Predict the structure.
Amino acid sequence: MGLEERLCSVGDVEPGSARRFDLGKRRIAVVRLGDDWYAVGDRCTHQDVSLAEGEVHADSLQIECWKHGSCFSLTDGAPHSLPATKPVEVYDLRVDGDDVYVVLP
Ligand code: FES
């Protein structure tokens, strides 16, 4: 079990969107889809680009890097399209009232 840290408030992330949060050197893209929350590494594994600035695909549960279009799974971090070939990290999130917590490995 990793360390749990408070990341943000529920109202900090608009439904259907992604937002980047930094915890120390760690960059995390938090995605909110209705009542479902996801957290993946914010840094695209192709180049140093913020995935939170890309488009969220609610139907396929992926986030698309805006620079070259690689789509990463929100559930396991795997890239589903080139040019990225390596997965991003995936974090467990817990929502407790108005607080959103992330579990750091
Ligand atoms: S920087 Fe993300 S796909 Fe190239």
